[in-house]
Amino acid sequence: MEFDVVQGDVAEQSADALVNAAGTSLRMGSGVAGALRRGAGEELNEEAIENGPVNLGAVAVTDAYDLDAEYVIHAAAMPHYGDGQATAESIRDATRNTLERADDLGCASVVIPALGCGVAGFDLEEGAQLICEELADYEPETLEEVRFIAYSDEEYDLIRSVVDGFEG
Fold first, then answer.
1. 112: left (phi over 0), alpha (psi -120 to 50) or beta
2. What does the mean pLDDT of the chain come to?
3. Rounded mean pLDDT of 134-148?
4. Is residue 92 left, alpha or beta, with left meaning phi > 0 and alpha meaning psi from -120 to 50?
5. Considering only CA atoms, which of 32, 78, 70, 16 is closest in space to residue 52?
């Protein structure tokens, strides 16, 4: 499985599945969820909410509507209750469940953000390391390409350094 780090807006990516950094309610607010919601249209948020709530670390799948993808995989790395903070376990579970669901759907390509590292408060460097470990351990059936997406220059540089250190 090919793996790369890219920079940009997740809603402008083209892939079989785009991954939403979701909370357990699946209600789409800000950050990655907000970008996907704006790009896809309000129907995406409505379908996501109909599929929720889900357990922490679980995923749900919706249509991608106006996005250049077949599916949006909503990976619940943060709780929409309590302190709302992601954990190492929730990031690992959400990443692994995302990859498994993408394979179940027959996806060849996926774009995944730094799950749990935005509003959910988890350290980006540590979160990127956890995601890289899950990607390295995963044995795909149909997945051929995973793109780890960062929005800002600073996020890109940090994720790229984690990936380079992981590969090196």
1. beta
2. 95
3. 97
4. alpha
5. 78
- CA atoms of 37 and 45, how far apart (whole Å): 6
Cα–Cα distance, 141 to 106 (Å, whole number): 8
**In what order do the strands lie in the sheet containing 71-78?**
2-7, 145-150, 109-112, 17-23, 71-78, 59-63
- Measured CA distances, 52 to 89, 108, 110, 121, 138 (Å): 20, 26, 22, 22, 26
* Token pair of 34 as six digits: 């907000």
> Structure tokens of 26?
């699946």
Q: Which two tokens stand for residue 10?
A: 């997740």
Q: What is the pLDDT of residues 115-135, one digit of tens each?
A: 999 888 899 999 999 999 999
Backbone φ/ψ region at 145: left (φ over 0), alpha (ψ -120 to 50), beta: beta
